[in-house]
Every structure is written in C-alpha cells, then in structure tokens.
Specification:
There is one protein chain. By secondary structure, this protein is an alpha/beta fold. The chain has a single domain, classed as P-loop containing nucleotide triphosphate hydrolases (Rossmann fold), CATH 3.40.50. The protein has 12 helices and 8 strands. Helix 1 packs across helix 12. The two termini are 21 Å apart. The mean pLDDT is 93.
Length: 256
C-alpha cells in the first residue's frame, strides 16, 4: 500500500511544487511506483511534469466532485517515471461546489482508496492556503512533508501549520503525522539561514531531513521547459539534492 504524503505549507514560494515534481521523478528513477497529485488550481505541478493544463478534458476537479475516478483521470508524466493526476484553474471552483457535498473533507481520501495499492508513494501537491482543498490533502495523507525556507517568517508560519495538523488529527485523520521538514532554497553563506536551520533542528530533531535543497539556477529553469530538473540537468546540484532526498526517505522507510 502506498505511503501518502501531503506536501504543504500555507506560505507560497517555498518550493512545494518544485519538491513534488522533483521528488516524484527521483523516486520514479529509484524504480518506485509514484503518483503525483496536483491539488493546486494554478496547475504548476501539471505543467512542470510536461502536461499542458489548458488542453485537459478531465482533472482532479472531476475526481473531487465524484464524476470521475483517479484511474480515469491520471496520465503518465511525459518527462518522468511517474503518474500524474493533473489540475487547472477549473479546480478553483471546487471548494464552492463541494460545500454541500457529503463528507466533503474526505473526498480525496475515498478516491485514493481505489488506487493506492498500485503505488509505493502518493505525493499530494497542496495549494498555498489552509482551505478545503488542503484539508482534503491532509485528510487523505499518512504524513505531511513541509518544505520551508530558513527565514524568520517561515518559523511563524510553521507554528500555524503544526496547529492545523493537530486539528486535522483531532477531527478527521487521527494517524496524521509530520513526516519531515525540508529546508529549501538554502544558502549556507546566509547567517540568518544558518540560525533558523539550527533552530529547526533543535525543535524538531530528526524530523528535519538531513538533505538540504540549495538555491540552484537549474532547479528554477527546469519548470519553464516542462521537465523535472533530473531530466533537464541531472548533474546539477538541485537534481542531486532531490535524488539524495529520495534516498533519505527510502532509508527512513527501511533502515538498514
């Protein structure tokens, strides 16, 4: 059965989508069966996987409304060894339409139950907001991966996110846990980044991944080409960092 991870942080621009796409590609390269689920109306994970969001006949939107199954909507990412459940701006209306639906917070969990035995990992790229879409992601997940920059405001946002995880655990998903905190866009020359990084390790211990994702031009360029950075430039520091993250995750699952 798949390990389902919600990649989330209500703060935008911290590398959620970059992490979703490149971790999916890295786990796929490690011969794991991976499903990346785009839960963000911006559809950036869809485009970053090489799928044109404007030409899609069906997306995660139809899955949440119950008219399509995940199996009917998923596609093979042209640029990586993983499956994708795509999204586009149509998803922005889902929240309003889901308000009157039964078990509206659990729509995604129930849809994933039909396919999760086909995968080793399901990665959910959540939108940068604590809305009904994110609640669906957190309700469906076994654990949360939190990408974050090592800056002051990130610590404040982290406090809010941990509180949200506790609420979801109390009311909707009692087994939800924090899988790990991922330091992204990291510049070791920045003194504040070093200080915040040290604080994270002090407070969260081994929940902080040893792997650090650096600031990397190739990582930033890859989405404009519609491919993961592994495909764009496998030798780049960004690609090597995500391959290392995939290895760290696999070692955590089955320590030697």
């Amino acid at each position: 059965m798949a390990r389902i991870l919600a990649i989330t942080n209500q703060k935008g621009g911290v590398g959620k989508t970059t992490t979703g796409v490149n971790l999916a590609a890295s786990l796929g390269a490690a011969k794991r069966r991976v499903l990346l689920l785009d839960l963000d109306p911006q559809g950036n994970a869809t485009m970053g996987s090489g799928v044109d969001k404007r030409s899609l006949a069906s997306t995660i939107y139809q899955v949440l409304l119950g008219t399509h199954s995940i199996a009917a909507v998923r596609v093979r990412a042209p640029a990586g060894e993983y499956d994708l459940v795509p999204a586009n701006r149509e998803l922005a209306g889902a929240e309003v339409e889901m308000v009157d639906l039964e078990r509206r917070e659990l729509r995604l969990k129930e849809a994933l139950a039909q396919v999760q035995n086909e995968y080793d990992f399901v990665l959910i790229d959540c939108p940068p907001a604590l809305n009904l879409l994110t609640v669906n992601g957190l309700s469906a997940a076994h654990a949360v991966m939190i990408p974050m920059q090592c800056e002051y405001y990130a610590l404040e946002g982290l406090t809010d996110l941990v509180a949200t995880v506790k609420k979801i655990r109390a009311h909707l998903n009692p087994t939800l846990e924090i899988e790990g905190l991922l330091r992204t866009m990291y510049d070791p020359r920045n003194t504040l980044a070093q200080q915040v990084s040290a604080q994270l390790v002090r407070h969260f211990g081994d929940k902080v991944y040893r792997t650090v994702i650096p600031r990397n031009v190739r990582l930033a360029e890859a989405p404009s080409h519609g491919v993961p950075v592994m495909t764009f430039d496998r030798a780049s520091k960004g690609a090597q960092a995500y391959l290392a993250l995939a290895g760290e995750m696999l070692n955590r699952q089955s320590p030697t």
